Every structure is written in structure tokens, then in C-alpha cells.
Amino acid sequence: MSRLTIPIERHRLDNGLKVVLSQDRTVPVVAVNLWYGVGSRNETEGKTGFAHLFEHMMFQGSQHVSKNGHFEMVERAGGSLNGSTWFDRTNYYETLPSHELELALWLESDRLGFMLPAMDQDKLDNQKDVVKNEKRQRYDNQPYGDWDERLQALVYPKGHPYHHPVIGSMEDIDAATLEDVASFFETFYVPNNAVITLAGDFDSGEALGLINQYFADIPRGADVPPLAKDPTVAPLIGETVRQVVVSDVPLPRVIMAFRIPPFSSDDFAVAEVAQALLGQGRAARLYRRLVRERRVAKSVVSYAFPLLSGASMLLVWATGYPGMEHQALEAAIAEEVEDLRNAETAEVERAIALTETDLVRALERVSERADLLSAFELHFDDPDRVNRELDRLRAVSVDQIRAFADSHLGPDNRAVLIYDPKESS
């Protein structure tokens, strides 16, 4: 597979807004993607969940756009849109027919430049209720739904930016005032803390002219403050920490997490390939050994979180069968994870090939391409990194995988979260 050659053009407006253009005239579709450098890691004590709450507020209208007007206009134009909040960022995105590019740029600029005049107490109260209902549906009343909150607290110490979940504390959300929300907006929703990426069918000169027309007059904000919480953390947990949760879940589940180098580290590629070795595809170790051969698990999952602050996290989990003792399931997972010390060249090559294929397939979609370009521009000031991703993955060797397993996947760096079903009365 050859090196990627995605076209990239970079600009920066005088107000600090970063602009990435990636032209592809193959189909008459354009993706517009904005990343803001604010996520749950930027929240302060007593104000958790604000980044996610604000994602909701950004769809409640702006000075020249009615409540829910953003959705209505984009969908009426034949497009799709949404937003998402994570640990290190918040993003907003639209994919539309290419002749509707100006609509998306106007809508995004209006809520960046003219959000506060449209904000009122009714909208805030409404979205606070929406967020609380989301937490009840997706976390509190969903089997295994609180796993991330529990696991983050095990992997990251209190006071670390990743200790609390993205959705935050409902007490903090309840206490949020209009003044809090306005302050949050003025601090983080500024052009100098944002990237706008266009990918797809557009003329670069016309597109840049439209971006200047709609965004250039939005004033630059103050410099974004440093993280309120200390991201410094030891590279390893230092022991095995364990929590057993007895709840209304249908089957036992064991989730195992490990601190790993952050996304910004060259060693993160090794962690990505290691997780693919463990859980990507039906030939991966966890599926082959635990599901097909030993039949101690019904399903398995692995994932390496691309987090930036201090340390990231690799997790694996397995869901067992009715009546199974969680100790046996945990021991089976640990055995397979630790056996990566004996990884073989052929399986490492297979894992790299699978990871490459996933990346290339994602980049075929202009929406995913725009998202990755925004990420690399915001986090690394280097959108062209996307064209070097295959090189980064291919450079991972079997010796690196073995060393990574030895240094990061042992019992001295392990958080184990166990869900056991309640016994029926």
C-alpha cells in the first residue's frame, strides 16, 4: 500500500482561526468540520459536564438563527449534521451538497460570533433537562452504562483532568447559571481556539473567500487558560486496582484498562497495533482464544483511547456466560493480554494491515477526512500528519509489541472493573 497523498492547504485568519482545505471533486459533496480546543479536561471543580452541556446549547439558535434552525436548514438542504464532546475537544460537523457550502459556513459563523445574544434561561433549563435525561438513559439505567465513570476513576487519580466522565456531575449541571455558560463560551468558543476544515467538492479560492467573509470579523478571544487540573501522572498505575459492581446486568463482564503513552507520543502507534492484535477482527487473540476456542466469553472488545493529557488508556473487555465466575473471566483475559510478550511477526503484520485498512476506509469518506484533518491541526498543528499515519503504523515492530506488553500490560498497571449480575430472588 502506497503512502497517502491527501491534498492539504492551510491558512490562518488574523483572528487566529485555523483553516484546512482538502479538495476532492470526485462527488458533489462537501464536509464542513469545526473543532474547538475544549473538552471535559478543561473543566474546573464544581463545573463538570459544561463542555457537553455547551455542545447542546450550540444547537439552540444564535442571533440570526432560530432554535433548532441549524438542524432544520441543513436537513432541508439535503445535508446531515451533528456535534460531539470528548475529553480533549468539542466538534461540530455538516455534510451537504457542495452548492450548499455557504449555508454551512454562515450557520457555523453565526453561532461562533453571535451565540450569546440568543441565550436565555428557558433554553438553558431545557438543555439541562435534556442532559440529565441523557445520563439517565445512557448511563444510569443502561446495563454496564456507568463503566466509563467507574473506570476513569480507577485509572486516573482524583484531581487529574480525566478522572471525571465527559457527561459530568448532574449536581454541577443543575447548578449551572447563565453567567457560567456565558463565561465558558467567551473563554473557549473563540476563533483562536478553533479549526475549520473543508473536505470534498469546492473551489479553494471561493471557499477561502467565503470563510473570510463569514469568520474574519469575529474578534479574537483572550488566550485559552491552561488546564485547571494537573495532567501529570505516573506512566503506570503501580498495582492492580479492582472494583466489583453487583447490578442489574444480564451477564458478567470484566473490563481491564491500562495506562499507556499519550496520543502525542511516538509509542502510541505501538499501543494501537497491540489493541488490534488483541481485539480487532475474528482472528484476533481475544476473539480466537476466549470466544471460539475456550468459549469463556460471548464477546470481546479492545480500544486504545487517543488522549493527550499525561497518559492515555488502553482497555479490553469480555462478556461472559450466565453463571460464570468473574475470577475465571478475568484470569483468561489477563493470560491473553500478558501473552503479547510472545507476539509473532505474522500476527503483528496482520494487525498493522487491519489498522491500515480501517484508516484508509475512513478517509474515503469526506466527513471522516475532515474530522481527522481538524484533529491533527488542532492537536499537533500538523494536518499533513494524516499522510504519514500509514508510515507510523508500518514502523511498529514485533520487538516493540513484546516490549510494550512487558512494560505496560502487566499486573503493575491494571485497573479491573467487574460487573456481576444480581442473583434473582
Pick out its properties.
425 residues, alpha+beta, Cytochrome Bc1 Complex, Chain A, domain 1, 11 strands, 18% strand
Word description of this protein:
- This protein has 15 helices and 11 strands.
- It folds into 2 domains: 9-215, Metalloenzyme, LuxS/M16 peptidase-like (Cytochrome Bc1 Complex, Chain A, domain 1); 240-421, Metalloenzyme, LuxS/M16 peptidase-like (Cytochrome Bc1 Complex, Chain A, domain 1).
- The strands form 2 sheets. The chain has a 6-stranded mixed β-sheet with strand order 1-2-6-3-5-4, sandwiched between helices.
- The chain is of the alpha+beta class and 425 residues long.
- The model has no long low-confidence stretch (mean pLDDT 95).
- Helices cover 40% and strands 18% of the residues.
- The protein has helices spanning 50-57, 69-76, 101-113, 121-140, 147-155, 170-175, 178-188, 204-215, 268-279, 285-293, 326-338, 345-363, 366-380, 389-394, 398-408; strands at residues 9-12, 18-23, 29-36, 80-85, 90-97, 194-200, 240-247, 253-260, 299-305, 312-319, 414-421.
Succession of helices and strands: EEEHHEEHHHHHEHEEHHEEHHHHHE
The total count of strands amounts to: 11
Q: Indicate how many domains the architecture comprises.
A: 2
Within CATH, the superfamily of the largest domain carries the name Metalloenzyme, LuxS/M16 peptidase-like
Distance between the termini: 58 Å
Which strand order spans the largest sheet, edge to edge or round the barrel? 1-2-6-3-5-4
Tally of alpha and pi helices? 15
Mean pLDDT, as a whole number? 95
